[in-house]
Specification:
This protein is about 35% helix and about 20% strand. It is an alpha/beta fold. It is an enzyme of class 6 (ligase).
């Protein structure tokens, strides 16, 4: 009678570059898996020792020494359980994205990732050499095949495992989040399970890393492609499963985490992204401008949920065009959230700047220069608070505004992290309504009123932009799906709107290059995901 193999999935939030710290987490978790969960095998994420993505840290001369020291430490401090973990590894001068199997002080198997992604946010071909051979080892009579992240999205590595006759597949992943990604993964892993005729243990890491979000959502998939278990979204967790060699069945030992609605899913990702960026970079807290508008209202709510009210400070910076409604609503939200709140008028700063500039500006009619100066006064105040207190300035621009340049360099763009950088305006409204279902902190009239930068009398965003429902759909087609101008027009949009929006997107690349990082939640975010030249003669059209 065969003995079931108990596998523990360690869905961890690791820190890029902290090889000693990550090694300690691996050791601590392995011992816990052995002693508290009676696991025979513990699975860790892709590149667990270095964190993912390590980017050009992989080029540091001491990388090889540090990884070798980490592996030796694991081999010496852990026994009585098998570890499967990821790390970068030099072999004969070539660097591989490796998965290793360690048991009682011995490295019994290594597998080099074969499919190196080089699209969207990935550039693994910059660093790694692709492997060519399957990784298969035996444990308690079970033939186990290894797969690393992108490998599972292609059929060839799985075909090798099928030919090798494996009973079980372990997949180590650092798969970034975007909306709907967890459903795509489940479909792909199901295809591979059916292809190899074996269950798949799919482990994904969690945590925020600069603009990337890793959402967890680890999976257990049967040989028939059925989803047996889905792990938590954007949370650390340890999950166990039992594999029966006699029947080839994989059985989860806990219930699946229920699927979330889109708004809850995205909101939780934003919270984790803010929390990890602030905490992993050692900031004591954050400060932001609270304008009475919906973007800053949602941003401050995310910040409080991520860090706690005692680590969040907001400043209302009114000007002569700021409505009393905005002042009242900003104060109401600050009180509802229990954060430190201050009001600093920018009138004296603005007047002083204008007085000093009167010679330079003489003879010119008022235009956006005066509007931008208001935003820059606010940026100076926030950065001064940041410098003095060590707080990170959170900016509040959304993806729709960033796309068309509806923002001010060194003004509302001044800061270190943009909570809503990849959130279209229409989604901002959805998330705000969702947040109020948890507890009502965003005044309803902030959600209901027409959006305005309040940089001029009676100003609204739609004075200069199409309605956001129209704008966001055009932006999705152009930015995320690469439609041409004509193809977007063919979808039923007004040619004047399409051509104007595309022109604004193209000419504002220089602004986006200077914008803070922010959490990526769409399939193509601005930054490392979408890279267009600033200086270009390209003309939009067909």
């Amino acid at each position: 009678m065969s003995t079931p193999l108990r596998v523990l999935m360690a869905q961890l939030n690791l820190r890029v570059g902290d090889i000693p710290g990550n090694t300690s987490r691996v050791i601590e978790t392995a011992l816990k898996a052995r002693d508290e969960h009676q696991a025979d095998l513990v699975l860790f994420p892709e590149l667990a020792l270095s964190g993912y993505p390590p980017e050009d840290l992989l080029l540091r001369p001491s990388l090889e020494l540090r990884i070798n020291e980490a592996l030796e430490r694991i081999k010496s401090e852990v026994s009585g359980i098998t570890l499967v973990l990821g790390y970068p590894r030099y072999v004969e001068g070539a660097l591989y994205n490796m998965a290793g199997v360690i048991r009682d002080g011995e490295l019994i198997c290594e597998y080099a990732k074969q499919c190196l992604p080089n699209y969207q946010v990935f550039d693994e071909q910059r660093y790694f050499v692709a492997g060519t051979q399957p990784g298969v080892f035996e444990h308690q009579g079970v033939r186990i095949g290894l797969s690393i992240c992108e490998d599972i999205w292609h059929s060839a590595p799985t075909e090798q495992l099928a030919e090798a006759g494996v009973d079980l597949v372990l997949s180590l992943n650092a798969s970034p989040y975007h909306m709907g990604k967890e459903l795509q993964r489940a479909e792909v892993v199901a295809q591979r399970a059916r292809q190899v005729s074996a269950p798949v243990v799919y482990l994904n890491q969690t945590g925020g890393q600069d603009e990337l979000i890793f959402d967890g959502n680890s999976l257990l998939i049967s040989a028939e492609g059925e989803t047996l278990f889905r792990g938590a979204h954007c949370e650390e967790a340890l999950y166990t499963a039992s594999f029966d060699p006699a029947t080839g069945t994989l059985t989860p030992e806990q219930a699946s985490v229920p699927a979330q609605a889109l708004e809850a899913n995205v909101y939780q990702a934003l919270v984790m992204g803010v929390r990890d960026y602030v905490n992993k970079n050692g900031f004591p807290g954050v400060v932001l401008g609270l304008s009475g508008g919906i973007d800053s209202a949602l941003s401050v709510a995310v910040a409080v949920d991520a860090l706690g009210a005692d680590r969040v400070e907001a400043v209302m910076m009114p000007f002569r065009w700021t409505s009393s409604m905005s002042v009242e609503d900003a104060e109401a939200e600050a009180k509802a959230l229990g954060i430190k709140y201050d009001v600093i008028s920018i009138e004296p700063l603005y007047d002083s700047f204008m007085q000093q500039l009167q010679g330079q500006l003489a003879g010119y009619a008022p235009d956006t220069t005066e509007e931008n100066l208001q935003a820059r006064c606010r940026g100076v105040l926030l950065m001064a608070i940041s410098n003095k207190k060590g707080y990170l300035v959170l900016t509040t621009g959304n993806k729709s505004e960033m796309a068309v340049g509806y923002s001010t360099l060194y003004g509302d763009m001044a800061g270190g992290f943009d909570v809503l950088k990849d959130i279209p305006k229409t989604l901002v409204y959805q998330l705000s309504r969702y947040r109020n279902t948890l507890s009502p902190v965003i005044p309803q009239r902030v959600i209901d009123r027409p959006p305005s930068a309040e940089l001029a009398p009676d100003q609204t965003d739609q004075d200069n932009l199409p309605d956001y429902d129209v704008l966001d759909r055009i932006l999705e087609l152009y930015v995320e799906r690469d439609y041409s101008a004509q193809a977007i027009i063919d979808e039923g949009f007004e040619p004047a709107d399409v051509n104007r929006v595309i022109r604004l997107v193209d000419i504002n690349e220089y602004k986006r290059r200077q914008a803070p990082v922010g959490p990526r939640v769409t399939e193509r975010g601005f930054g490392r995901d979408r890279r267009y030249p600033i200086t270009s003669g390209w003309k939009a059209g067909i």
